[in-house]
Amino acid sequence: MSWCALDVRSPPESRDTVAAWLVSRTGQAVEERGDGMLVSFAESEAEAGSLLGELQLAFGAAVAGISRPLPDVDWSRQWRDGLGPRIIGRLTVTPSWAVPGDAGPITVIMDPETAFGTGEHGSTRIALTLLDRYLEPGHRVLDLGSGSGILAIAAAKLGAARATGIELDPEVEPIATANLVRNGVQDRVTCLTGDAAALAPLLAPVDLIVSNILRTVNETLLPVIRNALAPGGIAIFSGMERPERPVFLAALAGAGFAVVDEATDGEWWGVSARAAG
How many CB atoms lie within 10 A of CB 51? Predict the structure, then answer.
């Protein structure tokens, strides 16, 4: 079998969507390199060519890719070698095949799926880092754009009394629900499908909201998030790159938020904030 790598470049605002498309079409994990390159795998040169053609039809000229042949190894399993446990604050995030023997109670088991969120992406790690710093036992939590459910699951493992994930994509819900069961938190975590702007007010008030979405979506949701927070509540925003920092900080201030903390991971940036006044 002659495997090929697919090197794909896309604008930052569509990178997550392109990555999810590649995972769904190939069944393989996608590596995001430090320069923003997405790397996926195809089982043959013919499949690689077909995928690149479909990619152009799906996303247009803004997304470009090339294929390159790889050594004759089983890349359908080889990609697992680069995935293992990650320690993020008090959390251990690990795929199911690499759970450490001494894994503690704050272990989140998360396999690569078509749903975004495994702990391998810088924006997810930032959200987990800030969640670990500011979640207090007994908190009520909302996870907006919850994807795989990793942040809501982590919140429960860190002591949240209740966590609710809201995701717009209906195809993600079965994956997130399976992850709740795998992590044994289905009694404290619920995953809903729908528009966060419509559902968040119905679930308010909450003590902590985490929103790992694009900057433009985060900005749109600022009034909703502010109104859904209980007095003294904290909001965590991720999914943004470092150059977007000044734009989002200005939007935060304009929406009546005061910055509490910031975190970076490679080119990614996130912030925690409280409603001012």
Answer: 22
Domain shared by 110 and 239, yes or no: yes
- Tens digit of pLDDT for each residue in 33-51? 877 788 888 888 888 899 9
Domain that residue 124 falls in: 83-275
* 98 shares its domain with 193: yes
* Beta-ladder partners of 211: 144, 237
- Span 61-72, pLDDT tens digits: 889 899 988 766
Question: Which run of H or of E encompasses 120?
Answer: none
Domain count, the chain: 2
Strand segments, DSSP code E, in the chain are 4-9, 31-32, 38-42, 64-69, 86-88, 91-94, 107-109, 140-144, 162-167, 189-193, 206-212, 229-241, 257-265, 268-275
CA distance 6 to 65: 7
Quick one: tokens of 95?
Answer: 């795929």
Alpha-carbon separation of residue 186 from 126, 175, 180 (angstroms): 24, 13, 5
